[in-house]
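Translate sequence into structure tokens.
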Amino acid sequence: MLIAQQKLKENIAEYILYMYQIEDVIRAYKFDLERIMDEYVRGQLPDPSYFASYRQWYDGLIRGMHSQKIEEKGHLHQIQEVMVELSYLHNTLLNIANDEKYKGVYERALDAIQDFREKSNLKEKNDIELVFHAMYMKLLLRLQKKEINTESEEAFDNMRVMIAYLSRAYHQMKNGELNFFNN
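Result follows.
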């Protein structure tokens, strides 16, 4: 909960990846709030006084996942809404603001995005969603201590740079600091 709040304020890309992970944790524990709290959350709490707040947060996520019928796959509406905002920002930077720096970062990532689209079962996803799924896959590979070859590492790095730029622009936009017409 505290990590999610901090990431939401500071780095939207990390927030999305963190929330993907939390959704998977909830699924892995089969939506059992008691087990999540006892086996997963309790040992990570900065202070026992946070227990009730974390319990309420996880309970809300569980209820949201049930009501949105994403027990097996998919993402919470709140995450999808952020993804839509990022997709609009991506298109704005490319087509309206004509942000040359972002265009360059995106072009360097484009081959990797297209390769990932071809190799995945996510062909219908837009480029931004696809990149987040690729970055999450990399996170899972790292957690499983699986080796990533040099070519894949380079592809992931190009996508990471693109998402980092987009994430920074997102926070500037949310803070009213982004001017789309002075690039």
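Note: The chain has a mean pLDDT of 93.
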